[in-house]
Amino acid sequence: MALNMADEVKLFGFAFSPYVCRVKMALNMKGVKFQNIEEDPTNKSSQLLNYMNPVHKKVPVLVHNGNPIWESLVIVEYIDHVWKQVPFFPQDPYQKAVARFWAKFIDEKVFGKNGGDQQVVAEAYENMQILEKELGVKGKKFFGGDNMNMVDISAGFIAYWLPLLEEATQIKILTKDKFPKIMKWADDFVSCQVVKEILPSRRLVLAYYKKRFCKG
Amino acid sequence: MALNMADEVKLFGFAFSPYVCRVKMALNMKGVKFQNIEEDPTNKSSQLLNYMNPVHKKVPVLVHNGNPIWESLVIVEYIDHVWKQVPFFPQDPYQKAVARFWAKFIDEKVFGKNGGDQQVVAEAYENMQILEKELGVKGKKFFGGDNMNMVDISAGFIAYWLPLLEEATQIKILTKDKFPKIMKWADDFVSCQVVKEILPSRRLVLAYYKKRFCKG
Q1: What is the ipTM of this complex?
Q2: Residue at a domain's end among B63, B82, B101
Q3: Residue of A52, A64, A67 to mutate, testing the B interface (most B Cβ within 10 Å of its Cβ)
Q4: What residues contact A66, with CB distance under 8 A and at least 6 apart?
Q5: CB-nearest partner of A78 from B1, B81, B93
């Protein structure tokens, strides 16, 4: 696949979405310039509808030289495959499989698809304890070691969006006494230049969450 | 990573599990010899417990030269990464991302984690229609084209286990008039030598499903 200055990279997204920010973060880590197209999730543009998948009618959608790619982690792996600098996975096949396992675990088991109901919160809590332990085992700054990798990209929600969701819903999960390693990781994560640059405003995300989850 | 005759490959599994069979199929497609260790899911061996993940207490677990790998699709990707012959993905990064999307879709949206309740069946039906259409678009024998790929490995459940589950539960989804392309694909799939060799007996799977899903 020939890559050159003529590469056209468009990202259809929604600024507050942690899924969309995974892709922005991945592109930023690779130093790939892209056109950011902000969508209204309740009223998608005809251009986006045109690129949408019959199955998965969600942002982010990355369109690279006219080819649409769907699902945030699939997109991040694609970015890693096309742009080789700053690899998101360890080279060793075993370490790569372990990273893929954890990225998937965070995506499916910690993220929680259904907002703040009790069972989701209890499960997220238990799974966060597993992550806390995993960070302890490594004893490194990031899940990826000294530098961020696929697992950190997958986990970004925990660092930035979860505290805002907690503030909006008044359900507290992340505390310094229960999750000291995750809290330290979260600080380091949001302090990274490549992350800071793409994060949406705290104030606006908080307002969005309050509107969405606090109907009362 | 040096690979040689001394490679030790152990698969901890349960013969009737379609997840375990994904891994067996992948190893068989690559021509990798492995030691199959049959486990009782309700009474796991201490050797397996030793290799288990704190998070994911399920088979299959592949142990390669002492290193355990978890989650069937993560294991299949690992196998593809270590043994290069008969690749499970297209070379082209875009086609690879598309294959990864469909493998994930089938795993998460068609497989259905909760047996035969009505909502699961309705959702599976709808998602199978999407797959039927996808096979039509390709107009090829397999999801992978002329040869099986990652998507076929992920979809194996539909070809072999689903008809047996239908027989056990008397809930019929797959019919020749509604799903002609999937039915044709299923025939071709189970006729492949590398698949046939690793499939469990129909009679035993059926008996297992009857016991599990038909308490009445």
Answers
A1: 0.90
A2: B82
A3: A67
A4: A8
A5: B93
